[in-house]
Amino acid sequence: MTVTYVIDGSRVTGLERFWEVIGEAVNGPGGYFGRNLDALADCLGGGMGTPDDGDFAFEWRDHALSARALGHEETARQLRRSLERAHPTNRPAMRERLDEALAGRGPTLFDLIVGILADDATPGTLRLS
User: Fold this and answer.
1) For residue 128, which phi and psi values (nearest 5 degrees)?
2) Which of 9, 75, 90, 124 is least surrounded, with the fewest CB atoms within 10 Å of its CB?
3) How far apart are CA 51 and CA 111, in angstroms?
4) What is the largest CA-CA distance in the chain?
5) Phi, psi at residue 87, to the nearest 5°?
6) Do residues 98 and 76 lie in contact, with contact meaning Cβ atoms separated by under 8 Å?
7) Could you tell me the pTM of the whole model?
């Protein structure tokens, strides 16, 4: 039997809130399911609240609201924060990504998260509604 985790996109107002919403969807109030993109991919690999047999799916309701909240503006905000902590050798590439986000181009956080949920969930599926 497939377990479906529902992401309430109307509650996603930014990246920090997304981590809370997906954590609650999978593990209940106060639940954890990653706090960065790498951790999200790791959590999808098993354990961390998902069924051990991997038979699960995500349904992201009101995903269009999340897409706006995790759009270029939020992507730029997060890149600015990361740039401060980045290793000096990574800063030029991050500045380039930041410039793209500020110009409204390039992948957004929403795009990256959807890619991870669609590609890394084993054998999970993603339904956008």
Assistant:
1) -100, 125
2) 90
3) 25
4) 48
5) -65, 140
6) yes
7) 0.92
What tens digit of pLDDT does each residue of 34-89 get?
A: 999 999 988 887 667 777 767 888 999 999 999 999 999 999 999 999 998 999 99
Q: Which residues contact 12 (CB under 8 A, 6 or more apart)?
A: 18, 21, 65, 66, 69, 70
For 17-40, write each residue's pLDDT tens digit.
999 999 999 999 999 999 999 999
- C-alpha 28/C-alpha 104 separation (Å) is 35
Q: How would you write the chain as a 3-class SS string?
A: CCEEEEEEHHHCCCHHHHHHHHHHHHHCCCCCCCCCHHHHHHHHCCCCCCCCCCCEEEEEECHHHHHHHCCHHHHHHHHHHHHHHCCCCCHHHHHHHHHHHHCCCCCCHHHHHHHHHHHHCCCCEEEEC
